[in-house]
Request: fold
Amino acid sequence: MKLAKPLVLSIVISLLMAGSNLTAWAVKPRQTMEQTTSLEDQVPLAFGQWKALQTGYQQMALSVAADGQRSEEQPYDQVVMRTYRNDQGEYVMLALAYAKQQQQELKIHRPEICYQAQGYQASEKQELDLPQVGGRGIPGQRFFMSSSNRKEAVSYWIRIGSDYPRSGVGARLSILKHGLHGQIPDAILVRVSSIVATSDEAGAAYQRQERFLADLVHATPASAARLIVAAVP
Reply:
């Protein structure tokens, strides 16, 4: 029995549509990587020579969204902002901003963009591997920011799932890569900053920040350290 051409075409189109739907289903992210550990409770208030102040310096704002109400302006589920002081009277400001899910239209904000939106001018931007205990490095960045009334040396990394993207394009590629593996990645911004009088003080501030971050990850319980870094040292 010979099928009429319209019927054959209809069958072919139906099969193609079914195949397309199956492919879309296969690559659709279904497994979330979100974690529920409380950073506020688990990140230590004191470690090594560092102790958190009860009242810290004002930092570049990071806002928390109501549960399930994340938006482009408020992409975070947890935010911790503290100022630590060491035995030598030196200060480091810490900001942790965690998001349970990352999507192409809803991503963690890069610090330099937030600073510039608040009137800061950026200079001396560098990509580097921020050292960790045991010699391990984490891909991150640092930059010097200045405004009419404040100067800051800033270091940070962004973790998305198992990656540390250094650019907006890198973040998009990371989200896509995880999606192709059926995963919706979580993410965190780990930012430290120091107020300095001049750019000449930035070098010493960066070195201090590197030591601070390495000691922080090492001192944080594994349940919370897994939010800060992709693999616990």
About this structure: Residues 30-228 form one domain.
